[in-house]
Description:
Elements: H1 2-10, E1 24-27, E2 32-37, E3 47-54, H2 55-58, H3 68-89, E4 102-103, E5 110-111, E6 117-119, E7 123-130, E8 134-135, E9 138-139, H4 141-160, H5 168-186, E10 192-197, E11 204-206, E12 209-212, E13 226-231, E14 235-243, E15 246-251, H6 257-266, E16 270-271, E17 280-282, E18 286-289, E19 297-300, E20 318-320, H7 325-338, E21 343-347, H8 353-356, H9 360-365, H10 380-387, E22 390-394, E23 407-412, E24 415-418, H11 420-426, E25 445-447, E26 462-466, E27 469-472, E28 475-478, H12 488-504, H13 512-526, H14 544-552, E29 558-560
Helix pairs in contact: 3-4, 3-5, 12-13, 12-14
Amino acid sequence: MERLRQRLQQIDGRGYKAYKQLQGNYDFGPFQLSIDHVQGDPFALPSRISIQIGLQQHGLPKTFWQNRIRQTALEDILGRMLAEAIKKHVKGRRGTGRSGEISIATSGQQVLRRNAVLVTDQQIEARLLFALPGSGRSILVDEATQMFFSELPKIIADGLQWQKRELQLLQRHIEQAEDQQMLRELLPTANAIAFVANGAILPRRSGIDDRPLKAGVPFHSPPSLEQRFELPNQGSVTGMAVPRGVTLIVGGGFHGKSTLLQALERGIYNHIPDDGRELVATLPEAVKIRAEDHRAVNGVNISPFIGTLPGNRTTDCFSTDNASGSTSQAANIIEALECGCNCLLIDEDTSATNFMIRDERMQQLVPDAQEPITPLLHRVRELYEKEGVSTVIVTGGSGDYLAVADTVIMLDNYRVFDVSDKAKQIAGPAPTATEKKPLRPQQRRRIDLQTGPLRGQRETKILVRELRQIEYGHIRIDLSKVEQLVDAGQTESIGRLLAYCHQQEPEQKDGLLQTLRQALAQVDQQGLDLLLPWKAGHLAMPRLYELAAAANRLRISCKTH
């Protein structure tokens, strides 16, 4: 620690690049400081530091990280505690550019596996961004000294040192995540694809604020769908179990249909306590499907839903840089099935109408011979009965789906009713497809993942400009309609996983999907640091589906076998 203080005094009054002399390791007693990378100027991305604190210093019991889900939850809450301590103790900007900022990457309402805080049997390591202060191109030593020797120790004390402190907050966070994980694992035993606990608060404050709505109406299950689960920590929990099969969510506009579906979408993740949706669980392979005009499609067999197009253009290996609503939605379903999806989540408001339904009068006007689209309505039952894939559809204007539904849930002023029996009384005969091609086409696609580095660069440039936009080499990947992607750290991990796959398995001998699966398995086993050539703490773990979605949207050539 004193060596760092001396080095700061030695560079007092010098140019900003003299901060480079600070890189190295320093013993602060209760913790070890590593200055891993020093920024080049006050306007650049902040410097990267890491903190190591041993078992004796952090004072946390080993039971807090005895399995993967507990470890992830502990790392998550420690990151949040550090973020709160930064807000409390850091003065803020002091100087030009980003001078004086200290930050750590954390998740929103979800609990994600990250590399910002890493817990092992030997130590806890926390990785922070640390913007060394400067005025123009000159070092501000007094401000840097305050950051290192006053603010940083207080942050570590509040966030990582727990001897003789109340552990109830951490324990609740860990046990809540463990209960959610168990709830998700219990769904198949109840023949269910999702569960919403009684008392859950599903509405969010706004489209840009994912916290629970303060005046939100608590959820309550209709008696016919109510089930009870026993969880390891919380004990008995009761709520609505959404059965396998075809489920419709119906009701008037603004009565809560899409809010319920959005909660099911995010039910693939664990949530923090008091989120309101912390006991909403959905099968981890559930995928939200929508229309996505203008997306790229690479060699996907969409013939189960889209037949031969005008000009005698076949669709068993369909590629385009500008998909329509119907072709994009068909491709999204086939790609989800390739990834092992067992539950489709669909909202008619974000779907292509001609892909969802084709009523009798339109069939009389436009004969089947002239219509290449087989609507989902005609195959959704087959999708469940032959492929075991359930579907949850929000619909407010298409009564034809009543004839193919197993369960119909109605929202009325945010209250939930099971109207399945009434729906069956008024439903007509179920439609069927005249031509039935396999819903899971057997194909092994390969997509060239090489889009960089550009000439003169050492590696592929990967930048995340927005939550769902990746600059990958010289191509921009648009994931704006991949709605279960929730964190920019996931987005960057996706870009780096694509580059890793190209580096490790450029030929994709077993096909794209198997290459992606193998890469995810390696990262799951070895950690997210596998994807970075330097130490950093801003990555988060994605699912296979979102990773494949990025590869599938690359605007480059594809080979199919």
